C-alpha cells in the first residue's frame, strides 16, 4: 500500500478550494463536459454524502501520486492501493467540516465494506445505485485525464460543494469579549477576505450603528447592496447618514485605487446632485495619491469637503475611543449584519475562522 504525505494533501486541497471559492464568488462555474456536469447533478442529488468525499479524496490522490490506483482505497492486498480511511479522517473530512461544508460525520468508507474496490461490480451491494454510478463516471474522468484538467475536475467538485453550503444555515461564532488588540487582528483578517467589497461596507455600517447607539444619536443610517448603482438607488454613496431629512455625510467604501479622475467624476455625478457637504472615501487598499487629494481640495471653498480614511485605522481608533461597553455594541452589530440570510456563506465562514484563530491553542 502506497503512503501519502497528508500535510502536502492539505496544502493541495487548500489551494484547490481557494480556486473554487474565487470562481464561486465570480459566479464562474468551472467548465467541464456535459456528461461530467450531468454526473455531478446526480451525485449532488444523492443523499449519500460519502460519494462526494470519495471523489474529493481520489482526486487529491491522483494529483499527488499518479502511480496509485484510486479504485483501491483500503485494499491491503494491492501494492498500488492507499489508505482512504486515514486520508478522509486526517485531511478531507476535517477540511470540509472546517469550511462548514455539509459532509459525513464519520469516515466516508463506512458506507462500503471494509476492503472495497471502487468498481462497477460493487454497486450490487449498495442501496444508492444511481449515486454510485454517477461517482463511477466522475472517477473514470479523474483517471483518464492530464493534471491541468484533473485540477479543473476537483475544483468543479468543490464548487458544487460550495453551492450546497450556500443554502445551508451557518451559525456564527459568538464573542463574549475582545481586547482592542484582538479587534485589530480580527478586522485585519476580515478585510483580507475577498468579498467584492461587502465586508468593508458591513464593518463601516456596524461602526456607525455602534456610535449611534453609544451616544444615543438620532441618526438614520442607510446603506445599499454591493454592485447597486448609486444613481439607481438615488443616494450619494454606499452609506448615507441622515438626521431627519438632512444628509449629514455620505460614505463611499472602496477597494479600488482613488485617483483625481474619480474625485472629479464623484463630485459631478453624486456630490453636487445630492447637495452633499461631507463626503468620505473609506479605502481598504492603497492610499489616495497626491493628485486625488489635490482634486478634493478644490471643492472645499465651494462648501463640499471630500475626505479620505483608511478603514482599518478608522475602525480600530474608534473602538479604542468608544470603550468596552460600546465595543460590545459594535460586535453585536457585526453579528446582526453577518447573520442576514442574504450574506454569502463565505463571509460567515470567514468570520468563524477569524474568531477561532483568536483563541489561543495549547
Question: What is the topological layout?
Answer:
Blueprint (H helix, E strand, L loop, with lengths): L5 H20 L8 H12 L4 H15 L19 H15 L30 H15 L3 H20 L13 H12 L6 H17 L5 E4 L6 H4 L5 E5 L2 E9 L5 H15 L3 E6 L6 H8 L7 E6 H12 L1 H15 L6 H14 L4
Parallel strand pairs: 3-4, 4-5
Antiparallel strand pairs: 1-2, 2-3
Helix pairs in contact: 1-4, 1-6, 2-5, 3-4, 3-5, 3-6, 7-12, 7-14, 8-12, 8-13, 10-11
Describe this structure in words.
This protein is an alpha/beta fold and 362 residues long. It has 2 domains: 161 residues, no CATH class; 179 residues, no CATH class. The protein is 54% helix and 8% strand. A 5-stranded mixed beta sheet has the order 1-2-3-4-5. The longest helix has 20 residues.
Strand content: 5-15%
Q: Give the helix proportion (percent range).
A: 40-55%
The structural domain count equals 2
What is the spatial order of strands in the main beta sheet?
A: 1-2-3-4-5
Count the strands?
A: 5
Task: State the end-to-end distance.
Answer: 34 Å
* Number of helical regions: 14
What's the rounded overall pLDDT mean? 89
Please compute the radius of gyration using only Cα atoms: 25 Å
Shape category: elongated
**Element-by-element helix/strand order:** HHHHHHHHEHEEHEHEHHH
Amino acid at each position: 500500500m502506497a503512503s501519502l504525505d497528508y500535510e502536502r494533501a492539505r496544502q493541495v486541497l487548500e489551494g484547490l478550494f481557494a480556486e473554487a471559492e474565487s470562481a464561486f464568488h465570480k459566479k464562474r462555474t468551472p467548465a467541464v463536459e456535459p456528461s461530467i456536469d450531468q454526473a455531478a447533478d446526480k451525485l449532488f442529488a444523492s443523499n449519500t454524502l460519502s460519494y462526494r468525499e470519495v471523489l474529493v479524496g481520489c482526486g487529491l490522490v491522483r494529483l499527488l501520486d499518479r502511480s496509485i490506483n484510486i479504485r483501491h482505497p483500503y485494499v491491503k492486498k494491492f501494492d498500488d492501493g492507499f489508505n482512504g480511511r486515514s486520508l478522509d479522517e486526517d485531511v478531507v473530512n476535517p477540511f470540509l467540516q472546517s469550511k462548514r461544508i455539509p459532509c459525513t460525520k464519520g469516515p466516508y468508507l463506512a458506507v462500503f465494506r471494509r476492503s472495497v474496490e471502487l468498481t462497477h461490480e460493487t454497486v450490487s451491494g449498495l442501496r444508492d445505485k444511481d449515486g454510485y454510478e454517477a461517482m463511477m463516471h466522475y472517477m473514470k474522468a479523474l483517471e483518464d485525464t492530464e493534471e491541468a484538467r484533473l485540477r479543473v475536475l476537483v475544483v468543479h467538485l468543490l464548487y458544487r460543494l460550495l453551492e450546497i453550503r450556500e443554502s445551508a444555515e451557518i451559525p456564527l461564532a459568538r464573542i463574549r469579549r475582545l481586547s482592542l488588540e484582538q479587534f485589530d487582528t480580527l478586522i485585519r483578517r476580515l478585510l483580507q477576505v475577498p468579498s467584492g467589497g461587502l465586508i468593508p461596507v458591513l464593518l463601516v455600517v456596524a461602526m456607525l450603528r455602534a456610535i449611534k447607539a453609544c451616544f444615543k444619536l438620532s441618526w438614520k443610517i442607510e446603506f445599499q447592496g454591493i454592485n447597486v448603482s448609486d444613481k439607481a438607488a438615488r443616494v450619494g454613496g454606499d452609506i448615507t447618514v441622515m438626521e431627519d431629512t438632512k444628509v449629514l455625510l455620505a460614505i463611499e467604501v472602496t477597494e479600488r485605487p482613488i485617483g483625481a479622475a474619480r474625485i472629479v467624476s464623484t463630485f459631478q455625478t453624486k456630490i453636487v446632485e445630492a447637495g452633499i457637504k461631507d463626503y468620505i472615501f473609506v479605502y481598504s487598499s492603497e492610499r489616495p495619491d497626491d493628485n486625488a487629494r489635490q482634486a478634493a481640495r478644490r471643492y472645499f471653498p465651494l462648501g463640499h469637503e471630500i475626505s479620505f480614511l483608511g478603514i482599518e485605522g478608522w475602525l480600530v481608533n474608534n473602538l479604542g475611543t468608544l470603550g468596552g461597553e460600546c465595543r460590545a455594541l459594535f460586535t453585536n452589530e457585526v453579528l446582526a449584519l453577518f447573520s442576514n440570510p442574504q450574506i454569502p456563506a463565505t463571509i460567515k465562514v470567514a468570520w468563524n475562522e477569524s474568531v477561532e484563530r483568536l483563541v489561543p491553542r495549547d
